[in-house]
């Protein structure tokens, strides 16, 4: 398996203490998606949305990568071919776990963006609606994340990577958010072997040839161990 492409979602960071979205006590249970993860929601109430992201930024700052993040970094280091992680997560636990080749398709909690001049910088722990953009001084700053209705980042790199993949894995994602939720079906149609590693079957399980269910911190290291053993 030369080229390995791995899509990750909130489930890979669950055991690091970061909330998922759709589990019963998940982030969306406490906040309406429309209010905190859409441009209109931000327009309506920037203080509420900054508060939502400030709380997650503070939580993410204390979180540590778990055995699943570290196993994927080991795979990138020891696998002979290329390993690319496409993450829907806005935390930086893949990088903290040692992964280098990571695309944050839904943006990053630690990123800040100016709506007026498109300048990007490392976000402070707390962002407020009156922050000034360091480049144009407008008070049009926002978290550099991709909200519903906005175009995900990295599409120019993601599509060719899916086409070239020999192995596509989805880890810790419920398969509810597009375009990521269609990547398994897409990669399979383009010839990749597909595997889903998740706590339980997802909405996209039928797209995957191989299903491995259980906590990521257990099943991901096992899976990586097998991949590296088979390559010798
Ligand atoms: C787009 C922001 C066009 C950052 C997020 C109607 C109107 C408008 C749009 C649409 C529409 N219908 C469909 C769409 C498209 C829309 C969409 O998909 N809507 C859904 C709700 C139907 N998508 C968009 O708008 C996207 N943009 O389509 O632009 C376009 C597209 C392509 C090309 C050109 C143009 C933008 C989507 C991005 C939205 N932003 N977040 C943030 O706040 O974090 S989405 C949000 O959900 C997060 O990014 C999150 O990553 C993502 C997906 O959730 P998951 O990661 O899967 O997390 P979830 O909780 O759902 O699942 C966790 C899983 O882990 C579970 O299965 C659980 O069992 C498992 N798990 C739990 N614990 C463990 C575990 N697994 C293993 N171990 C454990 N311990």
Provide structural commentary:
With 232 residues, the protein is an alpha/beta fold. The chain has two domains: 1-17 and 65-106 and 151-232, TPP-binding domain (Rossmann fold), CATH 3.40.50; 19-62 and 111-145, 2-Layer Sandwich (SIR2/SIRT2 'Small Domain'). It is built from nine helices and nine strands. A six-stranded parallel β-sheet has the order 3-2-1-7-8-9, sandwiched between helices. The protein has a three-stranded antiparallel β-sheet with strand order 5-4-6. The protein is globular. The model has no long low-confidence stretch (mean pLDDT 96). The structure holds ligand BV8. Ligand BV8 is lined by residues 9-11, 14-15, 20-23, 26, 37, 88-90, 106, 145-152, 155, 172-174, 176-179, 198-200, 202, 215-216.
Summarize the structure in short.
The chain has 232 residues and is α/β, with parallel strands linked by helices. The chain is 34% helix and 19% strand. It is globular.
């Amino acid at each position: 398996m030369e080229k390995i492409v791995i899509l990750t979602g909130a489930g890979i960071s669950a055991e690091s203490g970061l909330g998922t979205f759709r589990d019963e006590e998940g982030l969306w249970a406490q906040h309406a998606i429309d209010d905190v993860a859409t441009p209109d929601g931000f327009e309506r109430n920037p203080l509420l949305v900054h508060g939502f992201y400030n709380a997650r930024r503070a939580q993410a700052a204390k979180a540590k990568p778990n055995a699943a993040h570290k196993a994927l970094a080991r795979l990138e280091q020891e696998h002979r071919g290329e390993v690319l992680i496409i993450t829907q997560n806005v935390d930086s636990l893949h990088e903290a776990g040692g992964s280098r080749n990571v695309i944050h398709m839904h943006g990053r909690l630690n990123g800040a963006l100016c709506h007026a001049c498109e300048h990007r910088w490392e976000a402070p722990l707390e962002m407020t609606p009156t922050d000034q953009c360091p480049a144009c001084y407008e008070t049009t700053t926002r978290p550099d994340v991709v909200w519903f209705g906005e175009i995900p980042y990295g599409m120019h790199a993601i599509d060719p990577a899916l086409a070239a993949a020999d192995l596509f894995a989805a880890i810790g994602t419920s398969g509810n958010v597009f375009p990521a939720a269609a990547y398994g079906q897409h990669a399979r149609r383009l010839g990749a072997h597909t595997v889903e590693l998740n706590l339980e079957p997802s909405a996209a399980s039928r797209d995957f040839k191989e299903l491995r269910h259980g906590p990521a911190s257990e099943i991901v290291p096992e899976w990586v161990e097998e991949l590296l053993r088979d390559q010798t």
